[in-house]
Amino acid sequence: MRDVEIVGVGMTRFGKQEDRSLESLGRAAVVDALNDGGVTSNSIQAAFVANVLGGGQVGQRVLFRAGIESIPVLTIDVACASGSAALHEGFEAVASGRHDIVLVLGVEKMSGLFKGGINLQREDRESRLGLTMPGIYAMVARRHMFDFGTTPAQLAAVSVKNRRHGLANPRAMFAQEVSVEQVLESPAIADPLTMLQCCPNADGAAAVVLTAGDHGRAGRPRVRVLASHLVSGTSLRRQVEIDRGDISRRAAAGAYEQAGVGPADVDVAEVHDPFTIGEVVSTEALGFCDAGDGGDFAASGASSLDGSLPVNPSGGLMSKGHPVAATGVAQIAELTWQLRGEAEGRQVPEARVAVAHTVGGGVAELDGVASVVSILAAA
Amino acid sequence: MRDVEIVGVGMTRFGKQEDRSLESLGRAAVVDALNDGGVTSNSIQAAFVANVLGGGQVGQRVLFRAGIESIPVLTIDVACASGSAALHEGFEAVASGRHDIVLVLGVEKMSGLFKGGINLQREDRESRLGLTMPGIYAMVARRHMFDFGTTPAQLAAVSVKNRRHGLANPRAMFAQEVSVEQVLESPAIADPLTMLQCCPNADGAAAVVLTAGDHGRAGRPRVRVLASHLVSGTSLRRQVEIDRGDISRRAAAGAYEQAGVGPADVDVAEVHDPFTIGEVVSTEALGFCDAGDGGDFAASGASSLDGSLPVNPSGGLMSKGHPVAATGVAQIAELTWQLRGEAEGRQVPEARVAVAHTVGGGVAELDGVASVVSILAAA
Known about the structure:
The structure is a homodimer. Chain A is an alpha/beta fold. Chain A is 34% helix and 20% strand. In chain A, strands 3-2-4-7-1-8-11-10-9 form a nine-stranded mixed sheet, with helices on both faces. In chain A, strand 5 and strand 6 (193-194) form a beta hairpin. The radius of gyration of chain A is 19 Å and the shape is globular. The two termini of chain A are 16 Å apart. Chains A and B meet through helix 2, strand 3, helix 3, strand 8 and strand 11 of A and helix 2, strand 3, helix 3, strand 8 and strand 11 of B.
């Protein structure tokens, strides 16, 4: 396996952008990443494009507009883990020697998409009965409260922290500080989860250029991908203990082994936080704290920007919004900026090792979930 | 690069199967392929799943029901080339040493899908103006007739041949012989293409197990994948000469080079025939005949089962129907049966080298197309 480096990253603003097409968003992120890396469009040998809701051949549609054609282009869907899965495929393609320089793109246009309802192929009985994504995460939260005594205020602390972090991210959807009281008093979505504990849908794109060894701009800090581990599994509703983040735990174990590092080595992490309880469970699964301690981990300030292990310095999905397939690639962009020391206003001092984590799926009747954990390091 | 072998294949019947779910179709093909190969579900290390219209995380949804979970599962969309692209990814994963045994699945449920119209994310102006898929292929046919003197009867010969071949395929949607006159007198869809020159939508699935070297059942003929080449490009409507199959030509050139064989070595081929003109242009692009001679190649009988280079012994999309993402994998299943000598009633005698070809995309406003050419051989 060859060393893989990140030489260019790009990301659009996330948020409601009704006037911009999917192609326009994707193109902007690709052009940014190429320019950031000093890479010309004709040097890209293959592209791995994450998209869930775009309606077909999104990769080709976007890349053509960025001056890229004739190469292998795959569009990949693994729900909320799509962007991370595309990164995983790109990493494997370069590490294995299949390609020397590849592009990874995540892009999603969600504005207006659900106005007429989702045209799912089959009836989704369980969603109609209330077992929607917020409903599932609410069940996880209730179970976590029962098993470990996690409090609503601890859950709210995740939202408070991530929204505070997001203030310094010019690409985030929201730039608004909130208090624990405001979070808890916002309208209930699926008890105990309130509105300010749920991430918003968004439009956006992020892109990354991966190379074998150093092809980056001279003199710039180098960033290596030490590991990217993808696993699949069954949905939450089929698990007995739904609050343990089993699938994330497996992905993390594989990634740590591949990278030769452990949780204690991690300086900064981007962790999947579609709902506050998501970050709580996932920080436990990633080994940042003990099982059951995820609520306290956030509420204590340990995962704040000035804490011992800052989590979601970008503001997370909670601040940035969640353009499904773009999310995992945006995490990689943020961590690259962190490892280069370029995360202005939200820089984690002396960040050397970074972890990105997503988990996708779990909606009722979608029996599969996937999780990807990737580990980056300053080279 | 390691040798890659096909040790198991499975395929459902193609056709309207309104009573079967996407999951049921996919599961059946997977179970067939595992059993055919003598491979247990827990030995599969990764799965590459092609699906276009299934609504998210199709890979995990299907594989869970076939006893496969915890492994990396990717769902891939490259329009009509999706199944071939999944095969390509599986081939690369095994050839590069990333995995020793992988599953490739293509599955599509189309029945009932277009009753309420397709919920495309954006308005498709050109389709509304008539530049649908039949419209585009009709333009290609008109241009081919103008450039090369191809006749309607030559186009019809493709349909006559493939529907005759399909009579011997128990998994094909149609089992009905048609004459040139019947083809030409069937209702016009997009002039000069008549109804019997267009493939039908269908439901179905096909699966393939790929391994590094020989893991197949003892004593059975072995089948190797010599090459799988994937290229992308711009849509037909952006090309000056729309009747030359440029993208297929590029995919074929790459595959022949990788395999170390040429068109003259090919004994049997499965070629993308969504419309009669598609097979005409693609047989030229694959080098089976000279540019412009594709019409005569079919009408002369050269590509019939008893001709010099049988094309679409399975009956092609024209007979089998076209469950979009299943199509490319079904081609591989058919060619595996051919190379093993198991294609009862439609066996090409002494078939040693086989070519599979698809091309996807090209619909108005979908600026990208992709083509995959794979080459198999009796080992």
